[in-house]
Design brief:
This protein has 8 helices and 5 strands; from the N terminus they run αββαβααββαααα. It has about 210 residues and is of the alpha/beta class. The chain has a single domain, classed as Nucleotidyltransferase, domain 5 (2-Layer Sandwich). Strands 3-2-1-4-5 form a 5-stranded mixed sheet.
Length: about 210
C-alpha cells in the first residue's frame, strides 16, 4: 500500500509559511520546464482529494486534485523556455523555474521544501529526495507542475499536430523520434538534447 505524503516535513522545519516546490518536464525533447510552488496556509485542513506524487496518479484523479489545490492553497507557477534550457542547461533551468515559481507566490514563504537533492540558489530551505512521496506541499506542487505542462503541450499540439505532443508530452518515444525525422525540428525543441542535437548535426552534414 502506498503511504500518502503528509505534513511531517512542514511541521518539523519550525516555520509558519512553508512552500513545497517541484518541477515537471526535465526529460522531454521540447517545450518548457515547468515548476510549481505551493503553500498550505492551514495544516489541520480536511483534504477530500488524493495528493501524492503526480506520476502515481491517474489523469482523472490529478485533474480533480488540481482544482482542489488551486482553490485551497497559495500557489504559483514558473517556467523556462527551450531557448533558456539550451542556454543554461536543464538542471540550472529547472532551478531557475523553481526560483520563479517561489518569487511569484502572493505570500513570501519562510522556508521551502524542494524536491530532489539540491537547492535553487538564494532559496532558504532544504532539499527532500523523493519529496513528492513525503511532503504534501511538494506533492501538490508536482500535480500543478505536471498538469500545467501537459496542458501547454496539448495546446502546442493543436498548432503542430504532426508531432503528437498531446500523446507523448515531448518525451522521446519511437513515434515522436520518427515524426522529428519526417517533419524536422522547430523552435520549441531543445537543441542541446542529444536526439535533437544529433539530428541537427545530420541535417547540417547533408546540406
Amino acid at each position: 500500500m502506498i503511504k500518502n505524503p503528509d505534513f511531517s516535513f512542514e511541521c518539523n522545519c519550525g516555520a509558519k509559511l512553508v512552500a513545497g516546490c517541484d518541477e515537471a518536464g526535465r526529460g522531454p525533447l521540447c517545450g518548457p520546464v515547468v515548476a510549481a510552488a505551493v503553500i498550505f496556509p492551514v495544516r489541520d485542513i480536511e483534504i477530500p482529494v488524493v495528493i501524492r506524487d503526480s506520476k502515481q496518479m491517474t489523469a482523472k484523479s490529478r485533474a480533480e486534485s488540481l482544482r482542489w489545490i488551486k482553490d485551497n492553497t497559495i500557489w504559483a507557477v514558473g517556467m523556462c523556455t527551450p531557448a533558456e534550457i539550451d542556454e543554461m542547461n536543464i538542471l540550472h533551468a529547472s532551478m531557475e523555474a523553481m526560483c520563479r515559481a517561489i518569487s511569484l507566490l502572493s505570500q513570501k514563504p519562510d522556508f521551502c521544501l524542494i524536491d530532489g537533492n539540491r537547492m535553487p540558489p538564494g532559496v532558504i530551505g532544504i532539499p527532500v529526495v523523493k519529496g513528492d512521496a513525503k511532503s504534501i506541499s511538494i506533492a501538490a506542487a508536482s500535480i500543478i507542475a505536471k498538469e500545467t505542462r501537459d496542458k501547454i503541450m496539448r495546446d502546442l499540439a493543436m498548432q503542430y499536430p504532426q508531432y503528437e505532443w498531446d500523446k507523448n508530452a515531448g518525451y522521446p518515444t519511437p513515434q515522436h523520434l520518427q515524426a522529428i525525422d519526417k517533419y524536422g525540428i522547430n523552435d520549441l525543441y531543445r537543441k542541446t538534447f542529444k536526439p535533437v542535437k544529433e539530428r541537427i548535426k545530420n541535417e547540417t552534414a547533408h546540406d
